[in-house]
Each structure stands twice: as structure tokens, then as C-alpha cells.
Amino acid sequence: MDLLVLGGTQFVGYYLVEAALSRGHTVTLFNRGQTNPDAFPGVEHLTGDRDGALEALKGRRWDVVVDTCGYVPRIVRDSAALLAGAVDLYVFVSTLSVYELPAVGQPPITEDSPMMTLHDESDETVTGETYGPLKALCERAAEVCLPGHVLAVRPGLIVGPRDPTGRFLYWVRRLVRGGEVLAPGNPGAPVQVIDARDLAAWMLDMAEARRAGAYNATGPAELLDMAGFLAGVQAAVNGSASLTWVSEEFLLEHEIQPFSELPIWLPDETSSLLRVDCGKAIDAGLRFRSLADTVRDTLAWDRAQSGGALGDLEGRLSARREADLLRAWRSR
Prior knowledge:
single chain, two-stranded parallel ribbon
């Protein structure tokens, strides 16, 4: 298979290229050459810019294109329109954030659940509020250009080695450090994550089979809650931390930011975003490695870098702030 990857040098894109090469596919990368420019030296690199500099893609033909870095509908439309006659399948990495948030107690999100809309579709500013609606519009733009030939992959929280966000790494490092750990909110709150390598391998499977359509793609296959997640991370690192569960009301009163300062945790009213039905993707072959394997590999990656893979995790709950919160929780 001749594969074109838009991006392809960071995280999911990196693992997709790695898997494709291991399977004997021919890979072409198109990007600005700014992120990990030395990755995959034996692969053809086309230099350009998604925003107005697509000349390097003209007059070429590939079997499949994978778009790992589309956030603005206009830019996705330009790429999809140019490649409409040049590929059999357009794989677009979208997000579960395209969905409207169901009310508490409603059935899990499926691929047919209502999607978010943007009041001003000309707004290209990517923020926490516009990210999901913009991704939904990106999906639509690709489908308009290649009707019936778009695979829209909607992952949730992607984790594992090479994750540039540090969200998963926060918990790995914290449970390695040990001591008293602030465990947020409801122990039974749902948790859904997917290892980037599992997502990349499945996307490649789908590309090889030319499977189109929309698929929710997160995991694990079995139910996982916050208590099980923290226990799983602790067991994988052979940690001895003690967990102190602190209510979401207390955390919100103290202006702790869910999903950023305390990654993976969401308050109950928004936790339906972590209770998504992925049966369609699982039926299509999506498989998951164990949480323990992801934890150990993430820890090994972090330790292999001087000073840690990402240095200090800016924006995450600091040790001092955590200690202050735990002290206030005990004295309330």
C-alpha cells in the first residue's frame, strides 16, 4: 500500500508510520519539517504547509491518506479536495469531543449521537469550546470532498509513550513518587483511554481494508473506573502510595481544573464523555494492550530521557498544591 501521512512525526502519526513500515508499506510524509524532522530518514518527506502550501502533493497518487493534524475545516477541505482524485480513502483523526454532552443517566455515546455545532462556522480559533465543533466540521468537509471514502476515527484520551501532553504521565510519575496521593472525585467514575500504538495499528488495519465510516475508538474493552485506573497504575509501577479520595465539590470549590490540573478526572456531570460505546470499532478489530503494559512503557520512555521526557509537567497539579489541598481536606 502506498500511504500518505499528513503529519506523521509525533505520537499517533509516528506510531502509524512505524507500523506501516513494519508491514512493508511505502510511506510518504507531508509536513512542515518542524516537529521531529529527523524521524524516519529512509522515508520520502514532502515539505509544505496545510495552510496554503500544498504544491508538493499535486500530480501524485497514493492508495490512502491519513490526516493526523486537521483542526480547521477550511484547511481539511483544501487537503481533501486536492487529494479527492488521488487516494481511495481519506482517514481523518477526529475526536470524541465532536459529540454533544449527554445528560447524566442517558445511554452511552454512539456514532449516531448528536454532534456539536459552531454558531459561527467561519470561526477558526481553536479553543476548548470550539475544538469539538471544528473537528465535526472537518469531518463534514472531508466527506463532502470524498463522499463514502472517509474514515472518521474518533478517539478519546490517547496515552502511552511519546504523548506530548503529559496527562497520562502525570499519574505514572505521581504513583511512582508515592506518599499520600490526592485521588479525585468519585472512585466509580468511568475512565476510558487508548494506547496510541493500539489506535495506530487499528487505523492501519482499517486503511488496508479500505473501511470508511465513523468509529468511536477508545478503550479498554472492559469497564474501567477511576479507582481501578489508579490501582492499575500503582500495581504496574510497584508503588506503595496511599490514596486519599477528595470530593469533586471540594476540588471545584478550590478551583482545581478537571482534566488539566488533575488529568483524566471529570466531574460527574461531564463524565459521560468517558462512557462511550466503542462496540463498532471493537467489532471491526480494535484491540487493546493491558493498562500495565502502557504504564510500564510510558515510564521507561520517560526515564530514558534526560530530566524526564517532558521535564516538569507544566499545568498539572504541583506537589506543593497537592499537599495544601490534602491538608485542607483533612481539616475541613
